[in-house]
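Throughout this chapter, every protein is written as a compact record of paired, labelled lines. An example of such a record is reproduced below:
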Amino acid sequence: MIRKILSLFFIAFIFFLISKIVNFREIINLFNKSNYLILLLGFILTLIWPILASFRWSFTLKSFEIKTSYLNILNSVMISFSTTLFAPAKAGDFVKMFVMGKEFKKIDLASAVISERIADLYVLFIFSLIGSVYIQNKIFIFTSSILIFLLTTTVFIFGRIDIKFKFNINIINKLLYVAMTSSSRWFSSFTDMKYVILFSFINWLLAITQIYIFFQAFGAELNYFHVLAIFPLTVLLTLIPITPGGIGVREASFAFLFYSYADTSINIAVSLCYFICASCITTIIGAMFNMLNSFSRKE
């Protein structure tokens, strides 16, 4: 209860700060003057996300030698999508642990989810580095390089070094097991994990393209590589588990990081469009799938 109150307070505080630097009427006017066809194209591309997510999850499970039907995989992905509006920091992905079936160990499914997140982070950081080099932003180059180094070091430590000592606190031992298992798969099952990387690459390239489309719809004059460099860093900031669905944090990160390349009002408008894609549309798709699935089972 206290956590929810703090989250709501933090959301209100962020939007209060944003209201001091941007006029929300300007944002409404931006939507009224935007290119509706381009805007619609950006939203429609969201429909591809569930397909990519289900294929990626299937290869992740294969690397963990977890066998199940594609329908079960799709169902778990859709249920996790239905929680994205309310879960902070992509925590909705862990819902897949509880809906896959009782025959699977939850700790192995948790490790599989973390393996996917590792793929996501690698792809995002590499995209950011490529874009940063192109736009010649030394701060972003340094940031993305450091993040790639830290992620690689962490995966190597937990994936290649056999840590055998146990802690007296069981939850720490479980977290250690998840960290070691999720990291080691990148060495022992790379044949399958390379497809996880591939689908993460396609997924985030699609998201970056959507962001670029939204900027174009509002008339911003920034190129694709600006989005390639900066958007991954906004995603990283929204992974901080402060607010449901990253509300407020996402808008603030867009406003701040894209400040030098586009008008603040446009940055906020684009962040709201991405919120609609990443949280609202995916939640609706997931909820509709689950509703239809429950009806078909009753019949």
Remarks:
- The mean pLDDT is 84.
